[in-house]
Predict the 3D structure of the following.
Amino acid sequence: MRYMDDFIILTTSRWQLRRAVKKLNQFFEKFSFTQHPDKTFIGKIAKGFDWLGFWFNQNGCVSISPRALANHVTKLHRLYEQVRKMPAKLQALRMVSYIKRYLLYHSILQDMSF
């Protein structure tokens, strides 16, 4: 499956995976794309993996990924620093607005079938 520039390849055997990765690497090479080493995972699904901000394992999509949650907390801290000198009511509006958008985004993505 592909979403924008994120790919996920699931196979039932190691040989199928090797063929698929080889074809993908040939595609990348042909168009001068590079893989980000920190964002590339090849392994068993049982270990779990982060894709599009969600955590997947052999049971499918099971939660928001730890990385996505950490990014969310970091953004909340930054937003708080930006609004902390504003009147309390305006602070609350900005913070609640961000949190609502974050929750809406994740609820929409969770409703999509992967």
